[in-house]
Amino acid sequence: MAKTRKKSTARKKTNNQGGGSQPLIILIVLALVAASIYGLKYFSDHSEFEPITFEFGSDSAKEDKSVERRFVEEENNESKTELTVSSKQADEPKEEPVAEKEKINPERMVETVKPNEDLPEYNSTDRYYFSKSFDFAWPKYTGEDQIIEHEFYTLKYNEKTEQADWVAYKLTAKNLKNARFKREDDFRPDPEVDTKSAHPDDYKGSGYDRGHLAPAADFTWDEGGLSETFYMSNMSPQDPGFNRGIWRKLEGQVRDWAMSNGEVFVVTGPIYGSRSTKIGKNKVYVPEGYYKVVLELVGQDVKAIAFVLDNEKSSAELYEYALSVDDLETKTGMDFFPSIPDDLENKIESYYDYSAW
């Protein structure tokens, strides 16, 4: 029994010695592991490169990790480049933004300059572009002439004779149909004449009428236009029998032609003799006769006609006083409608046909 106990004790001692060495081994292993982890962490924190992780597995897995690593490296390089560029841009002075020039499409270009409405304009085949010109209906004139443009008619004033050499205007059927105002005989000097026009008193006791060149009856469709006809620049000394007879008859005939043709242009003026009587304080010349020109341009059947009448009472028919515009130009030395093209001017001024009206 005693021998048996000794053996058991010896075996126990042996076991105790072996168990005491095991904790020491574990501590050593833990220290090594800790040192490895610390070393790897230190290496990772102080290295310029990403830590390389080794995994065991297939070749494709290794390739994926290699690609991932290259991607990380390229991304880091791009980030560094962007930071460098941004840093340079921050150091450079900023330029003011320049507005991009507007691209112009020639097909969509719009004329910005407003056109002159008085300039010639060709509207259709049965209208003539020159009829829109501001001075189309005027006889030839120069820059030295005193041209008075009223709202409803235009005249060239002659200071020597104290009346107009010509009065020009357009007469339309549309306006004549709207006649509704009555004349008030408000004769007065023309304020637009720089050299001062004749005065109503110049006609008092002279035996002559203050005869209209542009008739008052042609403008009864507008109150202002009617009043304008009573400016003394539109007056001329006329024999009462002439003014209230053949001259009045011709004025009515022209209105009838305007109604039937739609629109006509009219030019009227005096004709002086070698010796003219003068009346009034302003010495207004008494004309020997008068002329009137009528031009029609509506449609293709264009035409013109002129008249010359002596300043005296007459019972003759109107057609007896008719003549061509060319003949009138020869008689007066004037040039009517100079803006008309030569070919058309020759056509309408070289002959006349009273019956065509």
TrEMBL record:
Tree of life domain: Bacteria
An example molecular function term from Gene Ontology annotations: endonuclease activity
Region Disordered: start-end pairs: 70-102, 182-207
Location of the DNA/RNA non-specific endonuclease/pyrophosphatase/phosphodiesterase domain: 149-343
Enzyme class per UniProt: hydrolase
Keyword presence, Glycosyltransferase: no
EC number: 3.1.30.-
Keywords from the named record: Endonuclease, Hydrolase, Magnesium, Membrane, Metal-binding, Nuclease, Transmembrane, Transmembrane helix
Basic and acidic residues: bias regions: 70-81, 89-102
Residue stretches making up the ENPP1-3/EXOG-like endonuclease/phosphodiesterase domain: 150-343
Cofactor(s) needed: Mg(2+)
InterPro entries: DNA/RNA_endonuclease_AS (IPR018524), DNA/RNA_non-sp_Endonuclease_sf (IPR044929), Endo_G_ENPP1-like_dom (IPR001604), ENPP1-3/EXOG-like_nuc-like (IPR020821), His-Me_finger_sf (IPR044925), Non-specific_endonuclease (IPR040255)
A Pfam family recorded for this sequence: Endonuclease_NS
Segments passing through the bilayer: 21-40
Membership in a protein family: Belongs to the DNA/RNA non-specific endonuclease family.
Protein name listed in UniProt: Endonuclease
